[in-house]
Amino acid sequence: MKALILAAGLGTRLLPFTENTPKPLFTVAGRPLLDIIICNLQHAGCKAVIINTHHLYHKIDSYLNRQKYSIPVITRHEPEILGTGGAIKNAADFWDDSPFMVINSDIVTDIDLKKVYDFHLNHHYPVTLVLHDDPEFKTVSINNNGFITDFHERVPSPFLPSSPAPGLKSLRPEGTKILAFTGIQVLDPEVLGLIPDSVFSSSIDLYRKLISENEKVRAFISKESFWKDIGTPERYRQAVFEKIAPEAFKRAFPGWLNNKIIRTELKGDGSERSWYRLTAGNRSLVMADHGIRRQRTTNETDSFVAIGRHLHGKGIPVPKTYLYDTFSGLVFLEDLGDVNLQTVIQNTENPGEIISCYKLVIRLLIELSVSGATDFDPAWTHQTSSYNQDLILEKECRYFVDAFLKEYLGMDTCFEDFEDEFTSLADKALEFSVNGFMHRDMQSRNIMVKNNRFYFIDYQGGRLGPIQYDLASLLIDPYVELPRSVQTSLLNFCVEMLSSIISLDPHNFLACYKYCAITRNLQILGAFGYLSRIRGKTYFEKYIPKAIKSLKYNLSAFENTEFPGIKSIVEKI
Questions:
Q1: Which residues of the chain have pLDDT under 50?
Q2: pTM for this model (two decimals)
Protein backbone atom coordinates (compact mmCIF):
# COMPACT_ATOMS: atom_id res chain seq x y z
CA MET A 1 0.00 0.00 0.00
CA LYS A 2 1.03 3.57 -0.76
CA ALA A 3 -0.74 6.64 0.59
CA LEU A 4 -1.38 10.30 -0.14
CA ILE A 5 -1.83 12.73 2.75
CA LEU A 6 -3.81 15.80 1.69
CA ALA A 7 -2.03 18.77 3.27
CA ALA A 8 -2.38 21.66 0.82
CA GLY A 9 -5.35 23.43 2.43
CA LEU A 10 -5.17 27.09 3.41
CA GLY A 11 -6.77 26.55 6.82
CA THR A 12 -8.95 29.64 6.38
CA ARG A 13 -11.42 28.65 9.11
CA LEU A 14 -8.52 28.30 11.52
CA LEU A 15 -7.21 31.83 11.06
CA PRO A 16 -5.32 33.54 12.65
CA PHE A 17 -3.63 30.40 13.95
CA THR A 18 -2.74 29.16 10.47
CA GLU A 19 -0.93 32.37 9.56
CA ASN A 20 2.32 30.92 10.89
CA THR A 21 1.53 27.20 11.26
CA PRO A 22 -0.03 24.97 8.58
CA LYS A 23 -2.89 22.74 9.76
CA PRO A 24 -0.91 19.48 9.42
CA LEU A 25 1.55 20.77 12.04
CA PHE A 26 -1.11 21.48 14.67
CA THR A 27 -0.38 19.13 17.55
CA VAL A 28 -2.11 16.63 19.81
CA ALA A 29 -0.21 15.87 23.04
CA GLY A 30 2.82 17.54 21.49
CA ARG A 31 2.81 15.52 18.26
CA PRO A 32 1.95 17.16 14.92
CA LEU A 33 -1.08 15.66 13.20
CA LEU A 34 1.12 14.92 10.18
CA ASP A 35 3.47 12.80 12.28
CA ILE A 36 0.59 10.92 13.89
CA ILE A 37 -0.93 10.11 10.48
CA ILE A 38 2.40 9.03 8.97
CA CYS A 39 3.08 6.72 11.91
CA ASN A 40 -0.43 5.27 11.70
CA LEU A 41 0.05 4.58 8.00
CA GLN A 42 3.43 3.03 8.72
CA HIS A 43 1.86 0.79 11.38
CA ALA A 44 -0.86 -0.21 8.90
CA GLY A 45 1.75 -1.55 6.49
CA CYS A 46 2.10 1.45 4.17
CA LYS A 47 5.27 1.25 2.05
CA ALA A 48 5.58 4.91 0.98
CA VAL A 49 3.83 8.24 1.58
CA ILE A 50 3.44 11.32 -0.60
CA ILE A 51 2.10 14.60 0.81
CA ASN A 52 0.69 17.37 -1.34
CA THR A 53 1.54 20.84 -0.02
CA HIS A 54 0.79 24.47 -0.75
CA HIS A 55 0.21 26.81 2.22
CA LEU A 56 3.45 27.28 4.23
CA TYR A 57 4.83 24.25 2.37
CA HIS A 58 8.40 25.10 3.39
CA LYS A 59 7.48 24.58 7.07
CA ILE A 60 6.11 21.12 6.30
CA ASP A 61 9.27 20.30 4.32
CA SER A 62 11.44 21.59 7.16
CA TYR A 63 9.58 19.46 9.69
CA LEU A 64 9.82 16.30 7.58
CA ASN A 65 13.53 16.85 6.96
CA ARG A 66 14.09 16.56 10.73
CA GLN A 67 12.22 13.24 11.02
CA LYS A 68 13.47 9.71 10.46
CA TYR A 69 10.69 7.43 9.28
CA SER A 70 11.21 3.80 8.33
CA ILE A 71 9.40 4.35 5.02
CA PRO A 72 9.94 6.95 2.26
CA VAL A 73 8.01 10.18 2.85
CA ILE A 74 8.08 12.82 0.10
CA THR A 75 6.18 16.02 -0.63
CA ARG A 76 4.75 17.41 -3.84
CA HIS A 77 4.25 21.15 -3.86
CA GLU A 78 1.22 22.54 -5.67
CA PRO A 79 1.84 26.18 -6.74
CA GLU A 80 -1.91 26.33 -7.31
CA ILE A 81 -4.21 24.15 -5.24
CA LEU A 82 -5.54 21.26 -7.31
CA GLY A 83 -8.27 19.97 -4.98
CA THR A 84 -8.57 16.42 -3.70
CA GLY A 85 -9.07 14.88 -7.12
CA GLY A 86 -6.35 16.98 -8.69
CA ALA A 87 -3.92 16.02 -5.93
CA ILE A 88 -4.60 12.31 -6.52
CA LYS A 89 -4.01 12.72 -10.27
CA ASN A 90 -0.93 14.89 -9.70
CA ALA A 91 0.65 11.93 -7.90
CA ALA A 92 -0.06 9.52 -10.78
CA ASP A 93 3.63 8.69 -11.23
CA PHE A 94 3.86 7.75 -7.53
CA TRP A 95 1.19 5.05 -7.58
CA ASP A 96 1.76 1.42 -8.48
CA ASP A 97 -0.71 -1.30 -9.51
CA SER A 98 -2.12 -1.75 -5.99
CA PRO A 99 -5.02 0.12 -4.40
CA PHE A 100 -3.83 3.24 -2.57
CA MET A 101 -5.06 5.19 0.45
CA VAL A 102 -5.84 8.91 0.60
CA ILE A 103 -6.25 10.59 3.98
CA ASN A 104 -6.88 14.15 5.14
CA SER A 105 -4.19 15.75 7.30
CA ASP A 106 -6.63 17.68 9.50
CA ILE A 107 -8.30 14.81 11.35
CA VAL A 108 -7.69 13.22 14.75
CA THR A 109 -8.65 9.56 14.76
CA ASP A 110 -7.81 6.08 15.96
CA ILE A 111 -9.56 4.34 13.04
CA ASP A 112 -7.61 1.18 12.18
CA LEU A 113 -6.19 1.95 8.73
CA LYS A 114 -5.09 -1.64 8.13
CA LYS A 115 -8.67 -2.85 8.65
CA VAL A 116 -9.84 -0.23 6.18
CA TYR A 117 -7.32 -1.34 3.57
CA ASP A 118 -8.05 -5.03 4.10
CA PHE A 119 -11.76 -4.29 3.79
CA HIS A 120 -11.13 -2.73 0.39
CA LEU A 121 -9.02 -5.68 -0.77
CA ASN A 122 -11.87 -8.03 0.07
CA HIS A 123 -14.35 -6.49 -2.36
CA HIS A 124 -14.12 -5.75 -6.07
CA TYR A 125 -15.44 -2.17 -6.16
CA PRO A 126 -13.12 0.71 -7.18
CA VAL A 127 -13.52 2.98 -4.15
CA THR A 128 -14.01 2.64 -0.38
CA LEU A 129 -14.90 5.65 1.74
CA VAL A 130 -14.66 5.50 5.52
CA LEU A 131 -17.79 6.92 7.20
CA HIS A 132 -18.50 7.85 10.80
CA ASP A 133 -21.51 8.99 12.81
CA ASP A 134 -20.72 12.66 13.45
CA PRO A 135 -23.90 14.80 13.43
CA GLU A 136 -22.13 17.96 12.28
CA PHE A 137 -20.73 16.34 9.13
CA LYS A 138 -23.47 13.94 8.02
CA THR A 139 -23.50 14.45 4.26
CA VAL A 140 -23.14 10.97 2.73
CA SER A 141 -26.12 8.71 2.03
CA ILE A 142 -25.68 4.93 2.15
CA ASN A 143 -28.17 2.16 1.52
CA ASN A 144 -28.81 -1.02 3.51
CA ASN A 145 -26.24 -2.91 1.44
CA GLY A 146 -23.41 -0.58 2.47
CA PHE A 147 -23.09 1.33 -0.79
CA ILE A 148 -22.91 5.11 -1.07
CA THR A 149 -25.84 6.53 -2.99
CA ASP A 150 -25.42 10.31 -2.77
CA PHE A 151 -23.46 13.27 -1.38
CA HIS A 152 -25.16 16.31 0.15
CA GLU A 153 -24.12 19.80 1.11
CA ARG A 154 -23.70 20.33 4.83
CA VAL A 155 -26.96 21.42 6.48
CA PRO A 156 -26.57 23.92 9.35
CA SER A 157 -27.78 22.85 12.78
CA PRO A 158 -30.53 22.34 13.91
CA PHE A 159 -31.57 21.04 10.49
CA LEU A 160 -28.91 18.34 10.24
CA PRO A 161 -29.84 15.30 8.15
CA SER A 162 -29.82 13.21 11.35
CA SER A 163 -32.71 15.36 12.59
CA PRO A 164 -34.45 16.42 9.37
CA ALA A 165 -36.76 19.37 9.13
CA PRO A 166 -40.41 18.61 8.27
CA GLY A 167 -40.63 17.31 4.74
CA LEU A 168 -36.89 16.54 4.40
CA LYS A 169 -37.24 12.91 5.42
CA SER A 170 -39.59 12.20 2.54
CA LEU A 171 -36.78 13.08 0.08
CA ARG A 172 -34.65 10.21 1.40
CA PRO A 173 -35.12 6.71 -0.07
CA GLU A 174 -36.38 4.08 2.35
CA GLY A 175 -33.56 2.45 4.32
CA THR A 176 -31.01 5.18 3.54
CA LYS A 177 -28.71 6.37 6.33
CA ILE A 178 -26.66 9.56 6.33
CA LEU A 179 -23.20 9.55 7.86
CA ALA A 180 -20.05 11.71 7.85
CA PHE A 181 -17.13 11.20 5.48
CA THR A 182 -13.96 10.93 7.55
CA GLY A 183 -11.52 12.00 4.86
CA ILE A 184 -10.12 8.46 4.65
CA GLN A 185 -10.51 6.59 1.37
CA VAL A 186 -9.01 3.73 -0.64
CA LEU A 187 -8.99 3.78 -4.44
CA ASP A 188 -8.10 1.39 -7.22
CA PRO A 189 -5.59 2.80 -9.75
CA GLU A 190 -8.19 2.49 -12.51
CA VAL A 191 -10.00 5.59 -11.24
CA LEU A 192 -7.03 7.79 -12.18
CA GLY A 193 -8.20 7.73 -15.78
CA LEU A 194 -11.42 9.48 -14.75
CA ILE A 195 -9.61 12.51 -13.24
CA PRO A 196 -8.58 15.37 -15.56
CA ASP A 197 -4.90 16.37 -15.75
CA SER A 198 -3.44 19.50 -14.12
CA VAL A 199 -6.71 21.18 -13.17
CA PHE A 200 -8.63 21.62 -9.95
CA SER A 201 -11.02 18.78 -9.30
CA SER A 202 -12.85 17.21 -6.37
CA SER A 203 -12.76 13.53 -5.52
CA ILE A 204 -16.41 13.82 -4.50
CA ASP A 205 -17.26 14.80 -8.07
CA LEU A 206 -15.41 11.67 -9.19
CA TYR A 207 -17.50 9.51 -6.87
CA ARG A 208 -20.73 11.14 -8.02
CA LYS A 209 -19.71 10.32 -11.60
CA LEU A 210 -19.03 6.69 -10.67
CA ILE A 211 -22.41 6.39 -8.98
CA SER A 212 -24.18 7.96 -11.96
CA GLU A 213 -22.55 5.37 -14.21
CA ASN A 214 -23.76 2.55 -11.95
CA GLU A 215 -20.29 1.95 -10.51
CA LYS A 216 -20.66 1.14 -6.81
CA VAL A 217 -18.76 3.05 -4.12
CA ARG A 218 -18.36 1.00 -0.94
CA ALA A 219 -18.71 2.36 2.58
CA PHE A 220 -16.56 1.25 5.52
CA ILE A 221 -18.54 2.30 8.60
CA SER A 222 -16.42 3.09 11.66
CA LYS A 223 -18.64 2.56 14.70
CA GLU A 224 -16.49 2.48 17.84
CA SER A 225 -13.56 4.63 16.80
CA PHE A 226 -12.60 8.18 17.73
CA TRP A 227 -12.76 10.75 14.93
CA LYS A 228 -12.67 14.53 14.89
CA ASP A 229 -12.21 17.05 12.13
CA ILE A 230 -10.13 20.07 13.30
CA GLY A 231 -11.42 22.55 10.73
CA THR A 232 -12.23 25.28 13.28
CA PRO A 233 -10.46 26.43 16.46
CA GLU A 234 -13.31 25.08 18.57
CA ARG A 235 -13.21 21.65 16.95
CA TYR A 236 -9.42 21.52 17.20
CA ARG A 237 -9.40 22.31 20.91
CA GLN A 238 -12.25 19.88 21.54
CA ALA A 239 -10.42 17.15 19.61
CA VAL A 240 -7.26 17.67 21.68
CA PHE A 241 -9.28 17.68 24.90
CA GLU A 242 -11.21 14.51 24.08
CA LYS A 243 -8.06 12.73 22.96
CA ILE A 244 -5.70 13.55 25.82
CA ALA A 245 -7.89 14.24 28.87
CA PRO A 246 -8.46 10.48 29.45
CA GLU A 247 -4.72 9.90 29.10
CA ALA A 248 -4.05 12.61 31.70
CA PHE A 249 -6.33 10.80 34.15
CA LYS A 250 -4.56 7.51 33.47
CA ARG A 251 -1.20 9.12 34.24
CA ALA A 252 -2.47 10.81 37.36
CA PHE A 253 -4.42 7.83 38.67
CA PRO A 254 -2.96 4.47 37.56
CA GLY A 255 -5.72 1.94 37.10
CA TRP A 256 -8.26 4.67 36.35
CA LEU A 257 -11.22 3.39 34.36
CA ASN A 258 -12.75 5.38 31.54
CA ASN A 259 -15.39 7.23 33.51
CA LYS A 260 -17.18 10.16 31.93
CA ILE A 261 -15.12 13.33 32.37
CA ILE A 262 -17.13 16.36 33.51
CA ARG A 263 -15.63 19.78 32.79
CA THR A 264 -16.53 22.69 35.10
CA GLU A 265 -15.18 26.19 34.51
CA LEU A 266 -13.47 27.79 37.48
CA LYS A 267 -13.49 31.47 38.35
CA GLY A 268 -10.41 33.13 36.91
CA ASP A 269 -8.37 35.89 38.47
CA GLY A 270 -6.25 38.41 36.58
CA SER A 271 -5.06 35.92 33.99
CA GLU A 272 -6.40 35.73 30.43
CA ARG A 273 -6.32 31.94 30.66
CA SER A 274 -9.37 29.81 31.34
CA TRP A 275 -9.36 27.24 34.13
CA TYR A 276 -11.43 24.08 34.47
CA ARG A 277 -11.87 21.33 37.02
CA LEU A 278 -12.16 17.93 35.36
CA THR A 279 -14.02 15.35 37.41
CA ALA A 280 -14.33 11.63 36.72
CA GLY A 281 -15.92 9.64 39.52
CA ASN A 282 -14.13 10.66 42.71
CA ARG A 283 -10.99 11.82 40.88
CA SER A 284 -10.23 15.30 39.63
CA LEU A 285 -7.63 17.28 37.71
CA VAL A 286 -7.33 20.94 36.78
CA MET A 287 -6.95 22.02 33.17
CA ALA A 288 -5.41 25.36 32.20
CA ASP A 289 -6.44 26.61 28.77
CA HIS A 290 -3.97 29.20 27.45
CA GLY A 291 -5.48 29.39 23.97
CA ILE A 292 -4.05 28.21 20.65
CA ARG A 293 -0.52 29.30 19.81
CA ARG A 294 -0.21 32.21 17.39
CA GLN A 295 3.56 32.50 17.05
CA ARG A 296 6.40 30.01 16.98
CA THR A 297 8.51 31.77 19.64
CA THR A 298 8.36 30.78 23.30
CA ASN A 299 4.99 31.74 24.73
CA GLU A 300 3.25 31.63 28.11
CA THR A 301 2.18 28.00 27.72
CA ASP A 302 5.76 26.92 27.03
CA SER A 303 6.96 28.76 30.14
CA PHE A 304 4.14 27.42 32.28
CA VAL A 305 4.97 23.84 31.35
CA ALA A 306 8.77 24.06 31.37
CA ILE A 307 9.06 26.06 34.60
CA GLY A 308 6.41 23.99 36.37
CA ARG A 309 8.14 20.72 35.50
CA HIS A 310 11.51 22.17 36.52
CA LEU A 311 10.28 23.33 39.92
CA HIS A 312 8.41 20.09 40.59
CA GLY A 313 11.56 18.16 39.71
CA LYS A 314 13.46 20.18 42.32
CA GLY A 315 10.99 19.13 45.00
CA ILE A 316 9.44 22.58 45.23
CA PRO A 317 5.72 22.44 46.06
CA VAL A 318 3.97 23.22 42.77
CA PRO A 319 1.19 21.21 41.10
CA LYS A 320 2.38 18.22 39.11
CA THR A 321 1.93 18.51 35.35
CA TYR A 322 0.55 15.26 33.97
CA LEU A 323 0.04 16.03 30.29
CA TYR A 324 0.08 19.03 27.99
CA ASP A 325 -0.10 20.26 24.45
CA THR A 326 1.63 23.61 24.09
CA PHE A 327 0.19 24.36 20.65
CA SER A 328 -3.46 24.00 21.67
CA GLY A 329 -2.56 25.57 25.02
CA LEU A 330 -4.08 22.82 27.16
CA VAL A 331 -2.22 21.74 30.32
CA PHE A 332 -3.49 19.07 32.74
CA LEU A 333 -2.43 19.52 36.36
CA GLU A 334 -2.78 18.17 39.85
CA ASP A 335 -5.90 19.56 41.53
CA LEU A 336 -4.90 21.56 44.61
CA GLY A 337 -8.45 22.45 45.60
CA ASP A 338 -9.97 25.91 46.08
CA VAL A 339 -8.38 27.18 49.30
CA ASN A 340 -5.60 29.76 48.97
CA LEU A 341 -3.51 31.67 51.50
CA GLN A 342 -5.79 34.72 51.30
CA THR A 343 -8.75 32.60 52.42
CA VAL A 344 -6.77 31.03 55.25
CA ILE A 345 -5.54 34.40 56.58
CA GLN A 346 -8.97 36.01 56.36
CA ASN A 347 -10.40 33.14 58.44
CA THR A 348 -7.62 33.23 61.06
CA GLU A 349 -8.03 35.62 63.98
CA ASN A 350 -4.93 34.64 65.95
CA PRO A 351 -1.97 36.90 64.90
CA GLY A 352 0.48 34.24 66.03
CA GLU A 353 -1.03 31.68 63.65
CA ILE A 354 -0.88 34.17 60.78
CA ILE A 355 2.81 34.81 61.43
CA SER A 356 3.47 31.06 61.65
CA CYS A 357 1.79 30.56 58.25
CA TYR A 358 3.90 33.26 56.66
CA LYS A 359 7.10 31.91 58.16
CA LEU A 360 6.38 28.55 56.54
CA VAL A 361 5.73 30.29 53.22
CA ILE A 362 8.95 32.31 53.52
CA ARG A 363 10.95 29.12 54.11
CA LEU A 364 9.43 27.74 50.91
CA LEU A 365 10.09 31.03 49.13
CA ILE A 366 13.79 30.77 50.01
CA GLU A 367 13.83 27.19 48.74
CA LEU A 368 12.10 28.35 45.56
CA SER A 369 14.70 31.08 45.00
CA VAL A 370 17.79 28.99 45.74
CA SER A 371 16.83 25.54 44.42
CA GLY A 372 14.72 26.91 41.58
CA ALA A 373 17.74 28.76 40.17
CA THR A 374 19.80 25.58 39.98
CA ASP A 375 19.80 24.28 36.40
CA PHE A 376 17.24 26.92 35.43
CA ASP A 377 17.28 27.52 31.68
CA PRO A 378 16.61 31.18 30.76
CA ALA A 379 15.26 29.94 27.40
CA TRP A 380 12.15 28.77 29.27
CA THR A 381 11.05 32.36 29.88
CA HIS A 382 8.62 34.09 27.52
CA GLN A 383 9.22 37.74 28.42
CA THR A 384 12.71 38.48 29.74
CA SER A 385 15.17 35.94 31.05
CA SER A 386 15.90 38.06 34.12
CA TYR A 387 14.53 40.91 36.17
CA ASN A 388 16.29 43.84 34.51
CA GLN A 389 16.05 47.57 34.00
CA ASP A 390 14.01 47.35 30.79
CA LEU A 391 11.40 45.17 32.46
CA ILE A 392 11.13 47.46 35.47
CA LEU A 393 10.74 50.55 33.31
CA GLU A 394 8.23 49.06 30.85
CA LYS A 395 6.24 46.48 32.81
CA GLU A 396 6.11 48.24 36.16
CA CYS A 397 6.81 51.99 35.92
CA ARG A 398 5.23 52.70 32.53
CA TYR A 399 2.44 50.23 33.36
CA PHE A 400 1.67 52.27 36.49
CA VAL A 401 1.55 55.54 34.57
CA ASP A 402 -0.37 54.35 31.51
CA ALA A 403 -2.79 51.81 32.98
CA PHE A 404 -3.39 53.35 36.38
CA LEU A 405 -2.73 57.09 36.37
CA LYS A 406 -3.89 57.82 32.81
CA GLU A 407 -6.44 55.12 31.95
CA TYR A 408 -7.95 54.41 35.35
CA LEU A 409 -7.68 57.79 37.11
CA GLY A 410 -7.73 59.96 33.97
CA MET A 411 -4.73 62.01 35.10
CA ASP A 412 -2.94 64.17 32.56
CA THR A 413 0.57 62.79 32.92
CA CYS A 414 3.07 60.67 31.01
CA PHE A 415 5.96 58.30 31.66
CA GLU A 416 8.54 60.82 30.43
CA ASP A 417 7.63 63.19 33.26
CA PHE A 418 9.24 60.74 35.71
CA GLU A 419 11.68 58.87 33.46
CA ASP A 420 14.84 59.92 35.32
CA GLU A 421 13.35 58.96 38.69
CA PHE A 422 12.06 55.66 37.34
CA THR A 423 15.52 54.87 35.93
CA SER A 424 17.10 55.61 39.29
CA LEU A 425 14.50 53.42 41.00
CA ALA A 426 15.22 50.55 38.61
CA ASP A 427 18.96 50.79 39.14
CA LYS A 428 18.61 50.76 42.91
CA ALA A 429 16.16 47.85 42.86
CA LEU A 430 18.90 45.83 41.15
CA GLU A 431 21.98 47.16 42.95
CA PHE A 432 22.02 44.80 45.92
CA SER A 433 19.74 42.10 44.59
CA VAL A 434 20.14 38.56 45.92
CA ASN A 435 19.35 36.68 42.76
CA GLY A 436 17.72 33.31 42.38
CA PHE A 437 14.55 32.04 40.75
CA MET A 438 11.95 34.81 40.95
CA HIS A 439 8.23 33.97 40.79
CA ARG A 440 7.26 37.61 40.09
CA ASP A 441 3.67 37.29 41.31
CA MET A 442 4.17 35.95 44.81
CA GLN A 443 0.88 36.92 46.44
CA SER A 444 -1.67 35.14 48.61
CA ARG A 445 -3.97 34.10 45.74
CA ASN A 446 -1.09 32.30 44.07
CA ILE A 447 -0.37 30.17 47.14
CA MET A 448 -2.74 27.23 47.51
CA VAL A 449 -3.31 25.30 50.72
CA LYS A 450 -4.08 21.59 50.57
CA ASN A 451 -3.83 19.13 53.48
CA ASN A 452 -2.07 21.84 55.53
CA ARG A 453 0.65 22.22 52.89
CA PHE A 454 1.42 25.31 50.81
CA TYR A 455 1.85 25.18 47.02
CA PHE A 456 2.94 27.87 44.57
CA ILE A 457 0.92 28.34 41.37
CA ASP A 458 1.02 30.78 38.41
CA TYR A 459 4.79 30.56 38.01
CA GLN A 460 4.78 31.07 34.23
CA GLY A 461 6.20 34.59 34.62
CA GLY A 462 9.21 33.24 36.50
CA ARG A 463 12.77 34.26 35.66
CA LEU A 464 16.05 34.94 37.42
CA GLY A 465 15.87 37.91 39.76
CA PRO A 466 15.99 39.22 43.33
CA ILE A 467 14.35 37.30 46.12
CA GLN A 468 13.66 40.74 47.59
CA TYR A 469 11.04 41.31 44.89
CA ASP A 470 9.12 38.11 45.68
CA LEU A 471 9.39 38.86 49.37
CA ALA A 472 7.98 42.36 48.84
CA SER A 473 5.17 40.88 46.72
CA LEU A 474 4.27 38.58 49.57
CA LEU A 475 4.44 41.14 52.38
CA ILE A 476 2.76 44.18 50.77
CA ASP A 477 0.04 42.01 49.18
CA PRO A 478 -3.17 44.14 49.18
CA TYR A 479 -5.37 41.02 49.19
CA VAL A 480 -4.27 40.41 52.78
CA GLU A 481 -2.87 43.79 54.01
CA LEU A 482 -0.55 42.57 56.72
CA PRO A 483 0.08 45.06 59.55
CA ARG A 484 3.36 47.01 59.24
CA SER A 485 4.75 45.42 62.39
CA VAL A 486 4.09 41.95 61.00
CA GLN A 487 5.71 42.87 57.68
CA THR A 488 8.83 44.06 59.52
CA SER A 489 8.96 40.94 61.69
CA LEU A 490 8.65 38.65 58.66
CA LEU A 491 11.22 40.66 56.70
CA ASN A 492 13.74 40.20 59.50
CA PHE A 493 12.86 36.51 59.69
CA CYS A 494 13.66 36.10 56.00
CA VAL A 495 17.03 37.84 56.42
CA GLU A 496 17.84 35.50 59.33
CA MET A 497 16.84 32.34 57.42
CA LEU A 498 18.59 33.36 54.22
CA SER A 499 21.77 34.30 56.11
CA SER A 500 22.02 30.72 57.34
CA ILE A 501 22.16 29.48 53.75
CA ILE A 502 24.17 32.07 51.81
CA SER A 503 26.56 34.92 52.58
CA LEU A 504 24.42 37.99 53.05
CA ASP A 505 24.83 41.67 53.96
CA PRO A 506 21.60 42.44 55.87
CA HIS A 507 21.91 46.21 55.32
CA ASN A 508 22.24 45.90 51.55
CA PHE A 509 19.51 43.25 51.44
CA LEU A 510 17.04 45.54 53.21
CA ALA A 511 18.02 48.51 51.02
CA CYS A 512 17.23 46.51 47.89
CA TYR A 513 13.98 45.31 49.45
CA LYS A 514 12.74 48.89 49.91
CA TYR A 515 13.17 49.67 46.22
CA CYS A 516 11.66 46.35 45.13
CA ALA A 517 8.64 47.11 47.30
CA ILE A 518 8.12 50.31 45.28
CA THR A 519 8.50 48.65 41.86
CA ARG A 520 6.13 45.87 42.91
CA ASN A 521 3.63 48.39 44.24
CA LEU A 522 3.67 50.24 40.92
CA GLN A 523 3.08 46.95 39.09
CA ILE A 524 0.15 46.08 41.36
CA LEU A 525 -1.61 49.39 40.70
CA GLY A 526 -0.94 49.15 36.97
CA ALA A 527 -2.48 45.68 36.95
CA PHE A 528 -5.52 46.75 39.00
CA GLY A 529 -6.10 49.70 36.68
CA TYR A 530 -5.82 47.55 33.55
CA LEU A 531 -7.96 44.70 34.88
CA SER A 532 -10.68 47.05 36.17
CA ARG A 533 -10.91 49.50 33.27
CA ILE A 534 -9.75 47.53 30.21
CA ARG A 535 -10.73 43.95 31.12
CA GLY A 536 -13.89 44.91 33.00
CA LYS A 537 -12.91 42.93 36.12
CA THR A 538 -14.18 45.57 38.51
CA TYR A 539 -13.89 43.37 41.59
CA PHE A 540 -10.20 44.33 41.70
CA GLU A 541 -11.17 47.94 42.44
CA LYS A 542 -11.80 47.26 46.11
CA TYR A 543 -8.09 46.51 46.58
CA ILE A 544 -6.87 49.72 44.93
CA PRO A 545 -7.13 51.90 48.09
CA LYS A 546 -5.03 49.38 50.01
CA ALA A 547 -2.37 49.37 47.29
CA ILE A 548 -2.30 53.19 47.20
CA LYS A 549 -1.96 53.31 50.99
CA SER A 550 0.93 50.85 50.80
CA LEU A 551 2.70 52.83 48.06
CA LYS A 552 2.44 56.07 50.01
CA TYR A 553 3.81 54.40 53.13
CA ASN A 554 6.72 52.78 51.30
CA LEU A 555 7.64 56.04 49.53
CA SER A 556 7.65 57.86 52.88
CA ALA A 557 10.68 55.81 53.92
CA PHE A 558 12.85 57.77 51.47
CA GLU A 559 14.34 61.26 51.85
CA ASN A 560 12.34 64.10 50.32
CA THR A 561 15.05 64.59 47.70
CA GLU A 562 14.60 61.02 46.42
CA PHE A 563 11.77 60.49 43.90
CA PRO A 564 10.12 63.90 44.46
CA GLY A 565 8.11 63.69 41.24
CA ILE A 566 6.77 60.21 41.98
CA LYS A 567 5.93 61.23 45.55
CA SER A 568 4.13 64.34 44.32
CA ILE A 569 1.91 62.52 41.83
CA VAL A 570 1.13 59.74 44.33
CA GLU A 571 0.07 62.29 46.95
CA LYS A 572 -2.48 63.65 44.48
CA ILE A 573 -4.23 60.30 44.17
A1: 156-170
A2: 0.87
